Amino acid sequence: MALCLFLITVSASAQVKWNAEYQAYIDQYKDIAIEEMANYRIPASITLAQGLLESGAGKSYLSRCGNNHFGIKSHGWLGRTIKHDDDKKQESFRAYDSPRESYEDHSRFIANRERYQRLFSLNITDYRGWANGLKQCGYATNPKYAQRLISIIETYQLYKYDTMSPARKMMAVENKVETPVSKRAVFTVHPIKSYNQNYYVYARRGDSFESIGKEVGVSASNLAKYNERDADDALREGDVVYLRKKQKKADRRYRDYRHEVKQGESMYTIAQTYGMRLSSLYKLNHLDPDYAIQVGDQLRVY
User: Fold this and answer.
1) pLDDT tens for residues 71-129?
2) What is the DSSP-derived secondary structure letter of residue 258?
3) Can you tell me the distance from the alpha carbon of 200 to that of 222, in angstroms, rounded to the nearest whole number?
4) Alpha-carbon separation of residue 247 from 28, 108, 243, 296 (angstroms)
5) What is the DSSP string of 139-177?
6) For the chain, how are helix, strand and coil distributed in percent, rounded to 5?
7) Distance CA 125, CA 37 (A)
8) I want to staple 301 with a disulfide (CB 3.0 to 4.6 A). Which of 38, 157, 239, 250 is the partner?
9) How does pLDDT run across 192-240, given as a tens digit for each residue?
10) Distance (Å, rounded) from C-alpha 302 to C-alpha 298?
11) Kind and range of the H or E element at 82?
12) Which residues pair with 300 in a beta bridge?
């Protein structure tokens, strides 16, 4: 696929100079790249470098108007599309509702195609092998595509993200300290999932805030506080346990949505479902904390 016109900032010799726009893009999307690496085993450095290169650090027409950060065309795509001049006039490209959807589709695009399968035999830290492999497998037609990816990765030290797991990244942010980076990504016993700008795990039988806290590096008292419970509360199998403070609202996709209360639900379980604070759920719906919800009630979550 062809590169966007915004790539003129990269010189013919593939040397990249640091600039603030590139760094801002990295800061904005590195967490998603790390999550995608955990899910699909594509190096976060490669994903970020491709996103930077294909979208011109988020400034390209496709990324601005279609949230398409990787220049993926609409072949076999059943979703929304956007037109843009590329190899031909007004070619059809995939369009997404958010940049995250673009990142997720990029991972599936590579993971589910036979021509890229040999790349998954490479070490997760072998960004050079991945960059050269993507070019050899036909991801882009530009003869210097691999060199450009490598230059971006090395200029911005993106390789450091290839040794992080979602849990390790979360702990570094939460504890406000620089977490030492091991030679390999560290994955927890509980699969770390993400939702509404947060991370969470599902409690297993016998779990407690203390046992989960030890695993993810967060104190039991803080973990309980993030989930608006007492540290000695018993956890049930399947309980959602958020690993940092919840948001005041649900994800933006629920902006015009109303949650219909079902049998067995409580204000607390609904707040946990949407990754939002219980107090905010009451406030959004102008309800007193002692209000007893009824089956069929319609609740705002955003």
Assistant:
1) 999 888 888 999 988 778 889 999 999 999 999 999 999 998 999 999 999 999 999 99
2) E
3) 14
4) 18, 28, 12, 25
5) S---TTHHHHHHHHHHHTTGGGGGG--HHHHHHHHHTTS
6) 45, 10, 45
7) 11
8) 250
9) 777 888 888 899 999 999 999 888 778 899 999 999 999 999 999 999 9
10) 12
11) strand 81-84
12) 258
8 Å CB contact between 253 and 294: no
CA distance 34 to 45: 9
Phi-psi region of 58 (alpha: psi -120 to 50; beta: other; left: phi over 0): left
At 238, the amino acid letter reads G
pTM of the model: 0.55
Are 119 and 134 in contact by the 8 Å Cβ rule? The answer is: yes
Query: What amino acid occupies position 278?
Result: L
Burial state string for 209-221 with b = 16 or more CB within 10 A and e = fewer than 16: beebbeebbbebe
- Residue 268 tokens, joined: 């607390």
Contact present, 101 and 94 (Cβ < 8 Å): no
Q: Using 50, 70 and 90 to split pLDDT, how confident is the model at 4?
A: very low
Q: How many CA atoms lie within 13 A of 285 on its CB side?
A: 24
